[in-house]
Amino acid sequence: MSHQKLIVAVTGATGTIFGVRLLELLQGSEVETHLVLSKWAKRTLTYETQYTMEQVQAMATEVYPLHDQGAAISSGSFVTSGMVIIPCSMRTLSAIAQGAGDNLIHRAADVVLKERRKLVLVARESPLNQIHLGNMLKLAQMGTVILPPVPAFYNHPRDIDDIVNHIAGRVLDQFEIHLDVVNRWSGMVSSVQ
To answer: Which range marks the domain in which residue 148 is found?
Structure first.
């Protein structure tokens, strides 16, 4: 794995553990992580997990305040492999689709799109309405990967940790970062003769 820079944003949708796990998996790797957390991500993190903000921030290579529009990741001249928003709230997805630059998460995503780098949104909402679907389609047509955290069961997960690892691993696959946390499909064994 070559040295990479990856922007990681965590928003307030349920599922902050996916962002935490992604950061955990990348610790000690050759991937530099550049982290931004929304105001609601901080609230959701403490509600859903045992992790503190300090613990999560310590997992990243660099951490940026949400309203720091002068941060390195707000410029296309700061070269990265792309950005993942994990989880991605519908508010954030909508802001990106409409080109709003209210905060550093929106601005960094806009930069990734304009520079034609990879943007992966781990969209977390259910059920989806027409506005959600329209915004997702608009972003997908621009090359954004919409990756809802849908669990796989062919790998026979034993617990929630297995499901979280699998989803975080599949997200990393999008950036050609392949870690040994995903039980990969190897074909179906047929019992029919």
So the answer is: 4-173
Q: Which residues contact 58 (CB under 8 A, 6 or more apart)?
A: none
- In the chain, pLDDT over 70 holds for what percent of residues? 96
Q: If DSSP states are collapsed to H, E and C, what string results for 10-26?
A: ECCCCCHHHHHHHHHHH
Contacts of residue 121, Cβ cutoff 8 Å, sequence gap at least 6: 84, 85, 88, 93, 96, 136, 139, 144, 145, 146, 147
Domains contained in the chain, number: 1
CATH code: domain of residue 127? 3.40.50.1950
Q: 96 in a domain, yes or no?
A: yes
The arithmetic mean of pLDDT across residues 5-21, rounded, is 98
Q: Mapping DSSP to helix (H, G, I), strand (E, B) and coil, where does residue 48 land?
A: helix
Looking at residue 190, its pLDDT comes to 63
Residue 193 lies in a domain: no
State pTM to two decimals: 0.94
Please state, in angstroms and as integers, the Cα–Cα distance from residue 12 to each residue in 42, 90, 93, 116, 188, following that order.
Answer: 7, 10, 12, 26, 38
